[in-house]
Amino acid sequence: MKKTALLFSAIIILLTSCKNDGDGQLVGVKDRPDFLDLMPYGMAYIPAGHYLMGTGDQDVPFAFTHQSKNVSISAFYMDETEITNNEYRQFVYWVRDSVAHVLLGEAEIEDAEENGGHYVKYQTGEMEGELVEPKLINWKEEIDWNSENEEVKSALSPLFLTANSRFYHYTPVMLNISKLNYEYWWTDYRNYIDPEDPEVYGASYKENDKEGNDYGGLFANRPSSYNKNRERFMRNEVVNIYPDTLCWVHDFAYSYNEPMTLNYFYHPQFDNYPVVGISWRQAKAFCYWRTHMRNCWLSANDYAREHEFRLPNEAEWEWAARGDFDMQKYPWGGPYTQNLNGCYLSNFKPQRGNYIADGNIYPGIVAHYHPNDFGLFDMSGNVAEWCEDAYDKSSTNFTHDLNPQYTYYAKKTDSREKKRKVTRGGSWKDVSYYTTVFTKTFEYQDTCKSYVGFRCVQSYMGRQRGDNITTASHIY
Length: 476
Prior knowledge:
Oligomer: single chain
Strand content: 5-15%
Number of helices: 9
């Protein structure tokens, strides 16, 4: 009887363990989160296509930087305009507030109960006073920047520099921008990492290494991703994110640009002007923060995460700038910088240096000129734009013809040549040649210029409803 009962129980367990809602058929996994299939705010859809990259005019300076090449590009989204001062200021304020929350959480405010429990649980959570890592932040808690509580003011004091009121009557307190550091982790799928370099890995990775563990051949010439510790692909970045407002006086010798230094990023008059003084590393940090902010909202509302925001590679940038016009010099599809009425079509340095001829003596407000056929503004002139790619004159020859991208993540100890990053589109201080869709030049990844900004892209998941890919294809 016992054997019969045991056998019956075993059959029950076997049958229940094999249960499948699809009647034993291959039906996939259910209860997956929904995907919010919406176009990202402020972005335009750029269809997939094929074009001849690097064509349009002669190589005027004989720089050999725009050799022609047939390439195919996947669909993606791109910001309609360059990132503006006001948009970048949202990033600055987010970092400022997060630092303030942590400072207040680390400070044990004695009369926190009298203030409604403010600040006391930012870091401790439910651990009854024990330290929690990473630090927890309660974003619903408002920061009282004008608090009269001495302990609160003391906790926030590292964020500010107190000016001598004898000389600075109207600005008694200034933000200590050296504290505005954004720390993030990202996955380096290409694995451009020297495992012996402590500057990149640090001690924590070495401590976890075990003798004889090669992580499945991670450090071979072509590492695979099979059965390895994903941590070995992760890289840590700490970036001070405040724009270099002094770039206006550094970029031009013997030139009075102090008014721009004082006002361009601060003043609300310039809210909708492109942000400048941003290094390549700061632009990358902005992209990861934007991804984090979006995915946090999606996760909180039970939606699937989206592709990350990132900088465009230069092949994507050129395809988007052309606006479906082949073999043309400019985004508007013509060979001239003026229309039939003699009005300039972008912001650059016309004629023999008459900056004001196009209506702007410095960067202009975004979206002032007409967009190209993809709905993108200022792809020519205004400010040059950072691309993901490292700069190499011969990259056209060795990159693939499918979504080409040459990437090198330079370290601080690398030579200056390895720190070059591609910039595209030309700027308000460039002659018209540099505002063409095919011309590329470079700036160093850790430098900030008054004529370089950026915009973000996001890879497209699948095909847009009703979009016919063949209409954006071009066969040569």
